[in-house]
Design brief:
KH_dom_type_1_sf; single chain; RNA binding; about 20% strand; TATA-Binding Protein; alpha+beta; KH_dom
Length: about 220
């Protein structure tokens, strides 16, 4: 809940500890996997204003703690900066692969504990990643082979939105992931590894919100 007169949200009690998560198996040599994990990378995803406040915490305490624990940088779009066509803000997590994954784990555990990002119709949590259209082909794969293998390995639901032509210059799409916490984390692990292999996927962005000048 937003504190009166403050842009930050109060920081609820931390989520219960979970057993270490086993990442999905990858058909990749140790040297190749190590190279990808040593490269800077990033993920962006959507959250409601309320959930954003939960992640920030009172006086920024929660987001600072998450950054300290993970080593990743966590940035949010402003309270009035929404992903085009939604009322949701954007979180950008950047750092090395393991740092980004640790930050995602901390953030999603927090949201799961707070229940802010539950889909009320299905009573299932969901994560909506923001992915460049140019990188979606790699996630889909030839004939949908890659996304099918990701679904089978992670046991998560993974859907990629069609490109939205209502916004001039919008070249991002939403990758929606549903399932249990572990299912979602496994799917994010697979997707981030695939994005990290994409030479056209930027290691970082200057801002989580590059849509200020877009025209409807």
């Amino acid at each position: 809940m937003e504190a009166p007169g403050s842009p930050y949200a109060s920081s609820p009690e931390s989520a219960p500890k979970r057993a270490p998560r086993s990442p999905p198996q990858q058909q990749q040599s140790p040297s190749e996997e190590g190279d990808d994990k040593e490269k800077p990378t990033h993920l962006r995803f959507l959250v409601s204003n309320t959930a954003a406040g939960c992640i920030i915490g009172k006086g920024g305490s929660t987001i600072n703690d998450f950054q300290s624990q993970s080593g990743a940088r966590i940035q949010l779009s402003r309270s009035n900066e929404f992903f085009p066509g939604t009322n949701d803000r954007i979180i950008m997590v950047s750092g090395l692969f393991d740092e980004v994954m640790k930050a995602m784990e901390l953030i999603l555990e927090k949201l799961l504990a707070e229940g802010e990002e539950f889909n009320e119709a299905e009573a299932r949590p969901k994560v909506r990643l923001v992915v460049p259209n140019s990188s979606c082909g790699g996630i889909i794969g030839k004939g949908g082979a890659t996304i099918k293998s990701f679904i089978e390995e992670s046991h998560a639901g993974i859907k990629i939105s069609p490109q939205d032509n209502n916004y001039v210059g919008l070249h991002d799409r939403l990758v929606t992931i549903t399932g249990t916490f572990d299912n979602q984390m496994n799917a994010i692990d697979l997707i981030l590894k695939k994005l990290s292999e994409d030479v056209h996927y930027p290691p970082n962005l200057s801002s989580p919100f590059p849509y200020a000048d877009f025209v409807l």
